[in-house]
UniProtKB/TrEMBL annotation:
It comes from Actinopolymorpha singaporensis. This is Aspartokinase. Residues 284-360, 366-439 form the ACT domain. SUPFAM superfamilies: ACT-like, Carbamate kinase-like. Its EC number is 2.7.2.4. Substrate binds at residues 47, 74. Belongs to the aspartokinase family. Pathway: Amino-acid biosynthesis; L-lysine biosynthesis via DAP pathway; (S)-tetrahydrodipicolinate from L-aspartate: step 1/4; Amino-acid biosynthesis; L-methionine biosynthesis via de novo pathway; L-homoserine from L-aspartate: step 1/3; Amino-acid biosynthesis; L-threonine biosynthesis; L-threonine from L-aspartate: step 1/5. Catalyzes the phosphorylation of the beta-carboxyl group of aspartic acid with ATP to yield 4-phospho-L-aspartate, which is involved in the branched biosynthetic pathway leading to the biosynthesis of amino acids lysine, threonine, isoleucine and methionine. Signal peptide: none annotated.
Length: 439
């Protein structure tokens, strides 16, 4: 007997039918003898619809009220799910994030979990009930206000709960059969990855792969929580996100019905795990920055003070004749306006010539632990992209990742070309997209 945390995404509980199907699966886990804690997302596109509704009322909703509104989405699905489970003859109780003890920082819309005090959840389990927790929300430790964790945050709720309760595994149920070598919506021949390390999964999530929330993977790595990503629409075996020893422990606790993912994964040992892409960034170029000590520091200090996260940075060699250089960087599109306003204010002190803004860009990243020890990976990646006729605008690397910024229209072609160049294509199509828009 183990403790299993299961998280069901919005497309898995999109309608009454979906809720009943998920309830069956939860009850089956309970009947197999496990304690079950369920984290649920809002039904279907509810969060998007609530966002649109708020926009119709005001272009700038007060953050406190906006969080109140969005958290309602998860309250609907949690209550319906508890009802569906009751209908199947099991006791289930639903809890808001605040009731479940999810304590966060106070920034509305992007709060971070500080601590989880799951006393009531533990009590529900002790009474033999199934606990259902609303994902993506918590309560601020100092302001006592209701907060949300950022889009996709239910994954993080699930892993944080799993960590605080010492769960054997955190199962993330979604609308595809696991983590794939590329988004199957773009590369239909993408292959399922049997097991992926925390660090590779972190890079994928940071590079736009939407399958798991970035902070959920950070949390899992810190607390050694094995994540098992599966589809709620099938019984396929999915992907284990964990380092080998962690998967082994989870399997030994007999909380899984899947074959040994380590044996399965280690048979192949690819150099590259996958190709991720991201269309949520923009690029700003500061043109004609005087080539003097401290200018870059001034520019990026200004952006940091505005709490803007910078991704890639490129500084050209300065022209001998002009003594000036251009600095380009990428950042989240949502912060574009704010960044342009902040930089405009320091135009005279920095003495640059002009600012250019481009949000028609996309980022394509190649990820794999094997690139540490295999030369030529970057060359092969760039070659594939050039053969696809796509121009590279910026490049950045980490130990296990190479990323390029390209024109937005070139993203799909670049992803497919890179996927192909590293022999990641499956011989038969195995990726099924069961639902959801990938939004
Ligand atoms: N419902 C929220 C969203 O759509 C949280 C989640 O699904 O993880 O982003
Ligand atoms: Mg998600």
């Amino acid at each position: 007997m183990g403790l299993v945390v299961q998280k069901y995404g919005g497309s898995s509980v999109a309608d009454a039918q979906g809720i009943k199907r998920v309830a069956q699966r939860i009850v089956a886990t309970k009947k197999a003898g496990h304690d079950v804690v369920v984290v649920v997302s809002a039904m279907g596109d509810t969060t998007d619809e609530l966002t649109d509704l708020a926009q119709q009322v005001t272009p700038l909703p007060p953050p406190r009220e906006f969080d109140m509104l969005l958290t309602a989405g998860e309250r609907i699905s949690m209550a319906l799910l508890a009802m569906a489970i009751a209908q199947l003859g099991q006791v289930a109780k639903s809890y808001t994030g605040s009731q479940a003890g999810v304590l966060t920082t106070s920034q509305h819309g992007r709060a971070k979990i500080i601590d989880v005090t799951p006393g009531r959840i533990r009590q529900a389990l002790d009474e033999g009930a199934i606990a259902i927790v609303a994902g993506f929300q918590g309560v601020s430790q100092d302001t006592k206000e209701i907060t949300t964790l950022g889009r996709g945050g239910s994954d993080t709720t699930a892993v944080a709960l799993a960590a605080s309760m010492g769960a054997d595994v955190c199962e993330i149920y979604t609308d595809v059969d696991g983590v794939f070598t590329a988004d199957p919506r773009i590369v239909p021949t993408a292959r399922r990855i049997p097991r992926i390390s925390y660090s590779e999964m972190l890079e994928m999530a940071a590079c736009g792969s939407k399958i798991l929330h970035l902070r959920c993977v950070e949390y899992a790595r810190r607390y050694h929580i094995p994540i098992h990503v599966r589809s709620s629409f099938s019984t396929k075996i999915g992907t284990w996100v964990a380092d080998p020893e962690v998967v082994e422990t989870a399997r030994r606790a007999h909380v899984t019905d899947t074959p040994d993912p380590i044996e399965e994964a280690e048979m192949e040992q690819p150099i590259i795990s996958g190709v991720s892409h991201d269309r949520t960034e923009a690029k700003i170029t500061v043109v004609g920055v005087p080539d003097k000590v401290g200018e870059a520091a001034h520019i990026f200090r200004t952006l940091a003070d505005a709490e803007i996260n910078i991704d890639m940075i490129v500084q050209n060699v300065s022209g001998v004749a002009t003594g000036r250089t251009d600095i380009s960087f990428s950042l989240p599109r949502v912060d574009g306006q704010q960044a342009m306003t902040s930089l405009a204010k320091i135009k005279d002190t920095v003495g640059y010539e002009q600012l250019l803004y481009d949000d028609r860009i996309g980022k394509v990243s190649l990820i794999g632990a094997g690139m540490r020890t295999n030369p030529g990976v970057a060359a092969r990646f760039f070659q594939a992209i050039s053969e696809a006729g796509v121009n590279i605008e910026m490049i950045s690397t980490s130990e296990i990742r190479v990323s390029v910024v390209v024109d937005e229209d070139g993203v799909d072609a670049a992803v497919a070309a890179a996927h192909h160049a590293f022999d990641l294509d499956a011989t038969e199509v195995e990726a099924v997209v069961y639902g959801g828009t990938g939004r």
